[in-house]
Amino acid sequence: MRLEFSVCRSHVLPCQKEISIPVGGSRSMDLVVETRSLARLTPLLAWETHLRFTNSAAAFSCGVHSRGHPPVQTLPWWGDDWEAEDFYNPQNVCAPDSGGLDYSFLSLERGSGDTARAVPLTLNQNRTVLGTTVIHGQTPGLAHLVSQDADENPARMVHLDALGQVVSTALRLPKDHLASVVVGPVRTTGISVFLTAPAWAAGGHHDTFPDTVTMTLWRAGDEPRWLDGREEPMVTLTQVPVDETGSATVEDLPPSLVSPGKYDLRVNADGATTEVLTGLTFPEPGDTRHTVTAVVPPLRYGDLDGDNMVNHHDLRLFQAAYGNMTKPGSSHHPADFNRDHIVDVTDFSIMALNYGSRGK
To answer: Are the C-beta atoms of residues 242 and 210 closer than 8 Å to each other?
Structure first.
């Protein structure tokens, strides 16, 4: 089994490994394991990395947030006889002067009595995020994030195998560097979309816009598979937060990821079909940051099975969800199109308006 370890912005596909940071600014990057066999590795017990910046005067990082769990130095409810202690030493050490980063985490939740429950891995596009680190820009320059010593201090995961045995698996690192950080004036391009509120939302007592959207950039004229084409998107931006005004923004897309030229932008959200905006121009890199903007037509809700159509399959799923209620502040059910925390006749009327629609 081959497990590849990388550091990148995981919500960008392909995973973005080059970032720009203004002097005095910061940006987060994810520590990611990419594989097609991760399901066999759950649940996760622990992981560790030994990294360093080649130019610590330009950039440094002194902290990793591990999947919602802080680093654990001891396991008092398991004692000193835990089998993994023979090869695993939890630590969280940062040396800004040398650029060294030594991170080890126990991803465990305490169970009842003297038991511990491991945390399952969450898969997304054949990858999982082990942790997130915030990188700070200090002085203008270029810094690469590399392994301190892949032979002596490999990145690895501690997990349970299919038989429930504790095992350690080394993670394969790139031969050159894991990520690149450019500190100085930001000259990359960003993209901002502004969602148009649907007509049925006027005067309603509910959230008008989804929590997140997915944006895909295609070479101008490329046809996606759901329109009988064969092309794949050049870049996919997943789980982009949407604010209360309907605005969603992704900054810092370097030319190595989105080369200058014309693109078609497709936008969709959970429960909605895809809308398309054609002929967006990404310019040549200049002396300042540039943002491409676009106004998105109202999203058409009713696509519950994710096939980019609203049809009888979605109707069956809606019938099964009818009456579902969620508490304020919690996630909305995908069939709660007007986001009032109940799947009811109003949501059905919204679905009926879009019945027969197909994503663009």
So the answer is: yes
Q: With CA atoms as reference, report the closest residue to 253 among 265, 235, 241.
A: 235
What are the DSSP E strand ranges found in 61-178?
A: 64-65, 92-95, 100-106, 108-110, 116-118, 127-137, 141-147, 156-160, 166-170
Both structure tokens of 101: 């980063």
pLDDT digits (tens, 9 = 90+) for 129-178: 777 888 999 999 999 998 876 556 668 877 766 676 667 778 888 878 89
pTM value? Answer: 0.80
Under DSSP, the state recorded for 167 is E
3-state SS assignment for residue 125: coil
C-alpha–C-alpha distance, residues 133 and 114, integer Å? 32
**Among candidate residues 126, 67, 134, the one with its CA nearest the CA of residue 94:** 134
User: What is the arithmetic mean of pLDDT over 114-123?
Assistant: 52
Element (H, E) at 199: none
Whole-angstrom distance, CA of residue 156 vs CA of residue 172: 9
pLDDT of 199 reads: 83
DSSP string of 26-84, one letter each residue = EEEEEEEEE-S-GGGGPSEEEEEEEEEES-TTTEE---EEBTTB---S--TTTTT--GG
